[in-house]
Structure of P-loop containing nucleoside triphosphate hydrolase protein:
Amino acid sequence: MEQFYLKNISKYHSLVDALDPCPKPRISKGMPGPNMVVSARIRPLSENERLPSATFPRSSQKNVVDVHDLCNHPRGAPILRSNDYQVDRLFHPKSTTEEIYEDLVADLVPFAWNGGIGTLFAYGQTGSGKTFTVNRLEELVADTLMNGNLEGEREIYMTIIDLAGNAAFDLLSDRKPISLLEDSLGITQMVGAVEHPVLDMEDMRALIERATSFRRTAPTLKNPASSRSHAICRIRIWNRADGSDGLLYLIDLAGSEGARDVAAHGADRMREARQINISLSVLKDCIRGKAEADTATSLKGEKLGQKLPHVPFRQSALTRVLKHVFDPAGARACRTVVIACVNPSLADVGPTKNTLRFAEMLRVPGPATNETSADRKSAIQWTNTQLREWIRANCGTPAILDSVVAPRESGAQLFNLSGAEIEYRCRKCPGVRLEQAKAFRSMLWQMYISS
Ligand SMILES: Nc1ncnc2c1ncn2[C@@H]1O[C@H](COP(=O)(O)OP(=O)(O)OP(=O)(O)O)[C@@H](O)[C@H]1O
């Protein structure tokens, strides 16, 4: 596939350049949950990536990103296929982890300090920057916890484990296997994992470094040191005065890999990739189910007696450990931050779309509107005059004449942008280069697909 992109790189640039710089605003399908923020971080392209970026944060609409892919067309030149995605917060390649911390994570620390459960997940395709992001966020969290600015006396304990399939290991005890067992109160206990008291910043840094050195990594096609397990850093903040504790979970999930990326691996690695993908799928169902449960609760204002959405947290070791985060019957206050990490390269465009689609699905569905399919249809219908004006403004140079690319006059006054209702006779137009005509045709087609 990379060869196909490399061969058509100039075509890709010309198609992207020909796009409308102000696409019509995206109508959001979801909204932020009351206790959850879903964000996306686009990492910068690295020096050894040969293909251009396929992700374009939209300047005219906040937190919306356009992803343009180049696809083979069975009859003719490759065409551009575009998708757009919306998240609650979007971080551009130039954003720093410090900015992400201030915007998303800084609030979780005092929340956990005062007895809440704050959870951060970094999710994304292998090589997209999850470990890079979570490692720095852990240091920034440690700074805030240890700088003495938070009110009150607390004791801090740290546990770092990793989960590979259904097996769990203690990263602070030389990767010793541990068991995940449910106690009589229904709480999942990490039996055998050591909880380390943390007295100062140096202690915390040393523990984080030690855990990193024991993390299970293996090369993948996209990342020479890919994390092949989910790392869970749990910080327990104990208030000796009243015996309560707050929890902070920082979770660097294993990289998801598509079927194409794992094809070169042996049977063990394929099994491992399958387990990772299954646990990520269960996680998605749990985060979404919990967000829906939270929304239902906050809208109805009460918990008792109402039927809450099913949250399948028992289906994987990862979500069993985080049961108290997902259990809709749980009484503890929780806040969740999801960072979908994205590699912008055109070579990674498929996984990028999956990651962003996943992120969008985690947002709670927006309130039902009264919009009918007839309303939606009329929204993309223009009069012939409007359509002609649009063609004139967008066809590039030399101009494509109305008589060449024109809406078919069929007696009806309104036309939509479907291939069936616009006549493309670009190839026969004297003075119009074939390339330009094809680009224009694919642009019309693109508008039709995305409308
Ligand atoms: N925001 C960024 N700025 C600069 N470099 C980055 C950024 N994010 C990631 N990188 C670089 O990209 C490479 C891959 O990052 P990282 O190992 O964090 O990916 P990952 O998503 O954790 O991958 P895997 O799931 O395979 O472990 C690393 O070399 C890292 O330094």
User: Anything to note?
Assistant: The chain has a mean pLDDT of 77. Residues 43-44, 46, 124, 126-132, 220, 223, 226-227, 255, 341 surround adenosine-5'-triphosphate (CB under 6 Å). The first helix runs from residue 2 to 7. The chain has 14 helices and 22 strands.
